[in-house]
Amino acid sequence: MDELKNWFDETFYRELAEHLHGQYSKFNRQSFVDAALDGLQELELKARLRRTTELVVGQLPSDFSTALDILKPIAPHYDMMFKGMFLPDFVGLYGRNDIEKSLEALKYFTEYGSSEFAIREFFIIDFERTLEAMIGWAKDENHHVRRLASEGSRPRLPWSFQLKALMDDPTPVKPILESLKADPELYVRKSVANHLNDISKDNPETMLDWVDGWDGEAQETAWIIKHASRSLLKQGHPRAFALFGFEAKPAISLSEVDLSATSLVLGDKLNLSFSVTSNKRSAQKLAIDYIVHYVKKNGKTAPKVFKLKELVVQSGSCQTISKSQTFENFSTRTHYSGEHRIEVMVNGISMASATFQLKV
After folding, report:
1. pTM to 2 decimal places
2. What gap in Å lies between CA 282 and CA 140, rounded to an integer?
3. Structure confidence by residue, pLDDT tens digits, 131-145
């Protein structure tokens, strides 16, 4: 976030002022730069983006269409950079009374700075018309436009407001995802997978029904299905494991979890190991994960799933699984003293656990 925030600096504003003056001679470059830099250091990323939009609009003609004609030619200067997102932000804020022209502009601007946030404003204004446009965009020859169709319609898009209607019923966006389920661009496939993962949080069976009918042998589609199922796999959802051929009810014996220590201080490394023995006459595909139940500040615990290993075990075979983990503070996790628990999961089913004390 800090790195992106710093894109909106004095150099950016001076260059933008020159571009705008070149398209509109009445644009006052110095007053624009002075206003942009006033208190800039205190502003975070989204606040800088919104300030940029508002200051640009403050010097452009009030007519939306006229202002749009001034802004369109400067878009190529911000080819796929976050700071170019003030252009679709302008449309989302000031184009609400001209949906047709706004949708056309967002399609154009997304090639230079994604319109994924701005398009959501139009779902609120006219859901059906916006959806119709995005279904068409999913078949566009430009991969940035195809990605917008998926990313902009995500029910839980990060950094944006949720689309409650699609959280309740994702069915309207199914044609978009169907069109993109084998897209040749990884950039687009990532969006489709993240979109499906969003759906899985509110409508897991719907999401699984959709991907269950897709061609899992196709490389592009298989990647989407696997990435889209990550939340359900962490939750141990049986249908999610079945999608990838994992045994629904693994017939195995798991030894006790052996820990290298039962008392640690912050910074120590913990080694854990256990053995898996197959009790089935045929081979079994297993996904082995482990959960660390971290102690929180209030003394309660919160689980964190770690992927460990995927393997196929033959009849009667026995395999030893081991893992090392260092317990230290990160920007995303602060440790607290108390009893922690490690839980071993096989195909989403809890099989064994062990506890240790951590002193911070």
Report:
1. 0.84
2. 47
3. 999 999 999 999 999
Q: Which of 324, 353, 342 is nearest to 255 (CA)?
A: 353
Which contacts (CB < 8 Å, 24+ apart) does range 268-273 have? 268/326, 268/327, 269/324, 269/325, 269/326, 269/327, 270/324, 270/325, 270/326, 270/327, 270/356, 271/322, 271/323, 271/324, 272/322, 272/323, 272/324, 272/325, 272/342, 272/354, 273/320, 273/321, 273/322, 273/323
Per residue in 164-211, pLDDT (tens digit) is: 999 999 999 999 999 999 999 999 999 999 999 999 999 999 999 999
At the second CATH level, the architecture of 252-359 is Sandwich (2.60)
Helix (H, G, I), strand (E, B) or coil at 329: coil
pLDDT higher than 80, residue 1: no
- Topology of the domain comprising 2-243: 1.25.40
Residue 243 phi, psi dihedral angles, 5° rounding: -55, -30
Q: What is the pLDDT of the chain when averaged over all its residues? A: 95
Query: Rounded to an integer, what is the distance from CA 335 to the centroid of its chain?
Result: 26
- Residue spans of the domains in the chain: they are 2-243, 252-359
Helix (H) or strand (E) segment spanning residue 293: strand 284-295
Residue 117, classed as helix, strand or coil, is coil
